[in-house]
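3.2 Worked example (two chains)
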Amino acid sequence: MFETLSDRLTSVFSSLRAKGRLSDSDIDATTREIRIALLEADVALPVVKAFVAQVKERARGSEVSQALNPAQQVVKIVNDELIAILGGETRRLRLAKTPPTVIMLAGLQGAGKTTLAGKLARWLRDQNHVPLLVAADLQRPNAVTQLQVMGERAGVAVFAPEPGNGVGDPVEVARRSIDFARQKQHDLVIIDTAGRLGIDQEMMKQAADIRDAVGPDEILFVVDAMIGQDAVTTAQAFMEGVGFDGVVLTKLDGDARGGAALSVRHITGRPIMFASTGEKLEDFDAFHPDRMASRILDMGDILTLIEQAQKTFDEEQAAKMAGKLTSGESFTLEDFLEQMMMVQKMGPIKNLLGMMPGMGQMRDQLNSIDDRDLDRIAAIIRSMTPAERSDPKIINGSRRARIAAGSGVTVTAVSGLVTRFFEAQKMMKRMAGGMGIPGMPGGRGKAAKQQKKAKKGRRVSGDPRKAALGKPAPEPSDEQAPKKQGGLLGNLGGGPKLPPGLQLPPGFDPSKLNLPDDK
């Protein structure tokens, strides 16, 4: 959605990195490029003016002029302003003190309200709620049937007393749904209302009547992110006719320029609460302004990646696999297949890699990634026998031909997979051994050996005379040790014998001499 804007901003910031200090002309040129990038992304003109003015004011302040790296400081300013224009903080649903909490969806026809109702219900179900979908769109053909299908796929109950297709009173259906939810102990009610191809008084009156009948805790305006500046006009009309508390963006996975996301929040003053990023029910999540700003500036979205991994990977299974790797046990093709299947559950590989910082500069390579390659790898591994998966070394020529025939690929593809797996297995073993790196698992043993070797010191010669030169003088035993007498002659009483001619007279006791102490 924001690829064009992201590319333009990235190129602007790359030109700043070579500058040690930023002049006023540099700041003017940078903000001019930012203005052009935002206008090309179809951001509303009032939003562009306010954004650029704020960036320029902060860029000329002390936080940039006194910074060691002005370019990084400008990136931080743009990031902060993007977060502010997208809403600042993540806005959570307000839950009613007394259940059920009523959520009403409003918007134009074609914005994706009915599909989004199913996605929101599934998301709330995963948050340990018990939602109820209400089919109050009785005008559009088959809208009731569509909501029932979405509810079945999401594993959520649907309240649909009227067949729709122009039959039934939507206000009465919405009113009755609240009593039904209380009886069946649903703590959340999601009301899908009718839309029109354009804004008209009849649609606004019906939405206002439903609002007055049920008193919703949250009114969510559903807007197609691909309609550009028209989203702002529609949002203003709904704000005046019905009013709403938050915005839900749909079709964020499209190839439109994404100006609606940056414009609706600023114009209406209402936060973006949810975003739909695909056709599947799981392609839906709360909208995080800081993460979206990080994506636009090609700084990645690691937090979302971690959250998706936590949802997908079984903790016990992941701990078991981590223990196998750190202990140095063999990593088999069965383990590889298991890990690959878990990664596939997280979503398309291209989307996962796109959350990594700097991946915007490798967009062409990311676009060339095909998830069907993983399916082919899985087919190859599943065509192997259990013995071949646990020990690929036994896969000879005839086995490779059989595996290739069973998986519908060439023998070369099978050989390539086996070869790459052996290389990966070697890397796993090196990592398990720690490769001598302090702090790495397995590295302690090697470090201990090196310390033990260092303690050995230099070798001692076998020649006693040479060995004596390298040895310190032996400490005398208690019997051989002289008795310390103190003073200058304190070592004469019991020391070694004096040379001939220097013998003391018989009966001479040097301890009785009155000599000054040498302390």
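3.2.1 Second chain
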Amino acid sequence: MNSLIGEAPAWRLDDPQAIGALVAGRHGDPFSVLGPHAGPAGIVLRVLRPEAETAEAVDPDTGKILGKLLRRHARGFFEGLISDGNTVPRYRLRFTREGDVWDEEDAYRFPSTFGELDLHLIGEGRHRRLYQKLGAHPMRCDGVSGTRFAVWAPNARRVSVVGNFNGWDGRRHQMRFHPGVGVWEIFVPEVGAGDLYKYEIIGRHGELLPSKADPIGFRSEVPPATASVVHGLPGHGWSDEGWMEGRAAANDRTAPISIYEVHLGSWRRREDGSYLTYDELADQLIPYVKDLGFTHIECMPVSEHPFSGSWGYQPIGLYAPTSRFGSPEDFARFVDRCHGEGLGVIIDWVPAHFPSDAHGLARFDGTALYEHEDPRLGFHRDWNTLIYNFGRREVANFLTANALFWLDKYHVDALRVDAVASMLYLDYSREPGDWIPNIHGGNENLDAIAFLRETNITLFSDYPGATSIAEESTAFNGVSRPVYAGGLGFGFKWNMGWMHDTLDYMSRDPVHRRHHHDQMTFGLLYAFTENFILPLSHDEVVHGKGSLIGRMPGDRWQKFANLRGYFTFMWTHPGKKLLFMGGEFAQEREWNHDWGLDWHHLDDPMHAGVRDLIRDLNGIYRGEKALHALDCESDGFEWIDASNPDISTFVYLRKGGDEARPVVIACNFTPVVREDYRIGLPRPGRWREILNSDDPRYGGSGVTNGAVDAIEEPWHGRPASVTLRLPPLGALILSCET
């Protein structure tokens, strides 16, 4: 069939402006022109292939020419009839250039893969599984393998997917737009896993924007490279059914929760200084954490981030585990192996803000799309980052779906939400006049509050065994209370006040501690207003703060004794526990994300003693119901004696309910041994010292008690009492045997 009869056939596109826009890569609706279209003379095919000299459509089975295409523009616009009927035949495109011949599929012959319901939910901001539709998804369409690309950019004039498969040429794959929803999509045949891509966007004013990484990309290049990598949803075969069935109990407020916080890039390095992979971390980190008796591993943000010095707290790829350590499947396998060893996995999640890198979300389609236009609402001066517009339904949906994504596709057990305080307050770290009050004239960010509540409701509804944790440093009411009770709905909250007060107390010379006694007791005034976690996190060992051991006063022996006593106080205080890596063996150097931990410290008995103490504290915390079952209830704690500031002693009782044996803790935060120190006890009989931080096994001086017999002599308002030797700068734990 000759498809080029006549100089101006009726099927020819007579719209120079449209052709010009296409070859310039600036056509807002390319599918209205390109691909096969029915007309009076039959099926006309229009193709844009900028570098081709000739083009024709051929039968994919026989190679028969269905139609030669006329080159209508020198920059590669071709057009011609391929059938005189009304049905589009199966075809492939054949091109030539300087003697080279190649065949390929035509991206513009494939229909939209979006259904009306998906588009409706996306437009409404209610698509909980947004990641199943947006992003790059390898798939088959009409029997052809390829990848569907979809991105939200409602204010763009044109969006193209560019990559190594099309020479990064924005003219080649200009995308289909769904008006009213703001989504652009295209199925690109013969593109698959491993191909690199970005989105090339023309803004609403015709400006060419910096190429953007995919906001819902599932894999990225290894930084500092910035392209997204075609991958699709992770395809790990999970083997953690037993863990998933029982994890609700492991995450419960009555459970012993002891968290090892880790920065995967600097926990340990290879001899050449390079990173361990996810698999190597699983081989080494998991048995280490399990041996020390922790219940959970908390990973600092694993979402892809361009700058390693941000530790992950300025992410670009919220849906992509960082490629620094391996593939998405490698990270999934790491989580699976944690579960296989009985360890929960918490990841730090950063919905508060995002960096302004040109390839990221900043002015994504040429407008303030994910952020606020007004810097008084949309810019963090502290971190030079942009604040999400939580009041925009599509943005809130993007973030909530991301929270669900980690629980769904990576079986993560909890999200620790970073910088919640910065989300809650419009005047956070701002001077008067540098912020905009809410509609009631207050400083609460009502949109952020609504977003957090909705995310927590959805999280606990869809994944009832999982939980959420807020890093929130203010006295905002009800952070870990249910939404139906007026709270934000988090499962737990970091107790930043406890950390600041007690760490400040411990950093003082013992001679001055008598004047700051209330720093150790004040936390009990509010300890049960929230479900608290006691955090000694990475924030306490950076930015010139030094290490935990470095903040302890006195000579070397006293520093270690202080730290051991402090850890014992922490592990017996109401609240779940969190310790940043290196603290468990008293690393002396301030943490540096570019180096591994100082593992040689464990050759020193003093450092090894602290590690052994942590192991024993975790074992006792998990084994003694009195130390964890009522962590979040006032019924689980009583002061026995907290009124001795002159000698800096504290004695208290932990209870775990009627079936749990009581546990008593006595602390002495002076370097003076307290002989014949009488304390009141809830019952007479044999009490055993189940831990003493001054035990020689931990590097202590050996002021211990062993088993003691309490007599029926009232003391401290209790029916029984016993005399003890309180160790210098130490603490002991007594458990009732009868």
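3.3 Remarks
The radius of gyration is 32 Å.
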